[in-house]
């Protein structure tokens, strides 16, 4: 299997097939990220698509390192841009979670628990949890992507994870 | 890192959610505009470039015959003199100006569409 760096180098030379492999490899992470950030699945895939198109235009500036962190950073910026445009409409929508992911009933319940737990987190904690816990970025990668200090990211993640666990435990007891 | 904070169980839950997303449709949607752009970009660039090159090559002999040949070669040609030469050449034969125009359009197009 070719590394992300090799594929990105080929894509920078115009290799569409290489870029397609990168999209296929990272689409789940990026779409998961945008869905959890935007809370509106309809917009989320548009943001993810815009992120990949931006990545295609700027692939020449990718200087190695984690491609996942790079594309997640682009996706986060796209989310911020989209959020600025549709700010008045960005409200927590419970029904959106039902549309977001479709699977078996038990999975669905688990998913709703997770989404509710995420939805209850303060905005900054949610962003850090989505980046580090859900998308699997390191704290430093998330700090670079958000532009927040590393200590702040760590603190948000720690508190967010505690809150998530508490929420999930309460859901299972109930 | 996530291992330091020991939330791999939560990460696994999120990854399971993400894995259920349909990849094919999304990948096709992303790649569609990229492929469409590449489809017309190459023929347009080569077509315009070829047209410019053809026009330029066809005019070389005409241009050379119009150029004033100094009796003693002088490499210190001023910019204004060069501009005058170009404008006089364009007046003598507009195809030369057309070829230059095509080249400028091609360069502008490449500058606008080329990725970082």
Structural overview:
The complex is a heterodimer of chains A (174) and B (116). Chain A has two domains: 1-100, Orthogonal Bundle (Rna Polymerase Sigma Factor, Chain: A); 104-174, Winged helix-like DNA-binding domain superfamily/Winged helix DNA-binding domain (Arc Repressor Mutant, subunit A). In chain A, helix 2 (16-38) runs antiparallel to helix 3 (41-57), helix 3 packs across helix 4 and helix 4 runs parallel beside helix 8 (139-146). Chain A is elongated and about 55 Å long. Chain A starts with a helix and ends with a helix. Chain A is an all-alpha fold. Chain A has helices at residues 4-12, 16-38, 41-57, 67-85, 94-100, 105-119, 123-134, 139-146, 150-173. Chain B has 116 residues and is mostly helical. Chain B is built from five helices and no strands. Chain B has one domain. Classes of the chains: A mainly alpha (174), B mainly alpha (116). Chains A and B meet through helix 2, helix 3, helix 6, helix 7 and helix 9 of A and helix 2 and helix 3 of B.
CATH homology superfamily of the largest domain in chain A:
RNA polymerase sigma factor, region 2, helix turn helix motif
Q: Describe the sheet with the most strands of chain B.
A: none
Alpha-beta classification of chain B: mainly alpha
For the record, the count of structural domains of chain A works out to 2
Strand content of chain B: under 5%
Radius of gyration of chain A from the CA trace? Answer: 17 Å
Per DSSP E runs of 2 or more residues, the count of β-strands of chain A stands at: 0
Instruction: Please give the number of β-strands of chain B.
Output: 0
Question: Any idea of the CATH class of the largest domain in chain A?
Answer: Mainly Alpha
The CATH architecture of the largest domain in chain A can be named as Orthogonal Bundle
Following the backbone from N to C, one meets helices and strands of chain A in this order, namely HHHHHHHHH
Our measurement of the CA-to-CA distance between the termini of chain A, rounded to an integer number of angstroms, reads 45 Å
Q: In terms of quaternary structure, what is this?
A: heterodimer
Which range does the strand content of chain A fall in?
under 5%
Q: Name the overall outline of chain A.
A: elongated
Helix share bin of chain B = over 70%
Greatest contact between two chains: A-B, 43 and 27 residues
Count, helices of chain A: 9
What are the low-pLDDT stretches of chain A, counting only 5+ consecutive residues below 50? 94-102
Q: What is the count of distinct domains of chain B?
A: 1
């Amino acid at each position: 299997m070719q590394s992300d760096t090799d594929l990105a180098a080929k894509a920078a030379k115009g290799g569409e097939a290489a870029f397609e492999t990168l999209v296929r490899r990272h689409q789940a992470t990026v779409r998961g990220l945008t869905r959890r950030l935007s809370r509106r699945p309809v917009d989320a895939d548009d943001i993810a698509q815009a992120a990949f198109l931006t990545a295609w235009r700027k692939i020449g500036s990718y200087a190695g390192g984690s491609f996942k962190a790079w594309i997640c950073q682009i996706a986060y910026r796209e989310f911020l841009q989209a959020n600025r445009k549709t700010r008045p409409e960005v409200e927590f929508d419970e029904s959106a979670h039902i549309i977001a992911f479709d699977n078996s009933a038990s999975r669905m319940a688990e998913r709703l628990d997770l989404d509710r737990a995420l939805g209850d987190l303060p905005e900054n904690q949610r962003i850090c949890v989505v980046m580090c816990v859900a998308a699997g970025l390191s704290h430093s990668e998330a700090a670079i992507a958000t532009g927040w200090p590393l200590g702040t990211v760590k603190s948000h993640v720690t508190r967010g994870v505690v809150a998530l666990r508490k929420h999930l435990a309460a859901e299972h007891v109930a | 890192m996530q291992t330091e904070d020991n939330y791999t169980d939560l990460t696994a839950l999120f990854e399971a959610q993400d894995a259920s997303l349909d990849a094919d449709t999304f990948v096709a949607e992303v790649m569609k505009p990229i492929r469409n752009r590449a489809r017309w970009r190459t023929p347009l660039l080569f077509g315009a470039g070829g047209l410019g090159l053809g026009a330029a090559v066809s005019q070389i002999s005409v241009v050379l015959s119009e150029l004033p040949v100094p009796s003693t070669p002088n490499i210190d040609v001023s910019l204004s003199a060069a501009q005058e030469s170009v404008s006089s050449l364009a007046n003598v034969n507009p195809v030369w100006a057309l070829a230059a125009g095509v080249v400028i359009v091609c360069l502008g197009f490449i500058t606008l569409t080329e990725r970082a």
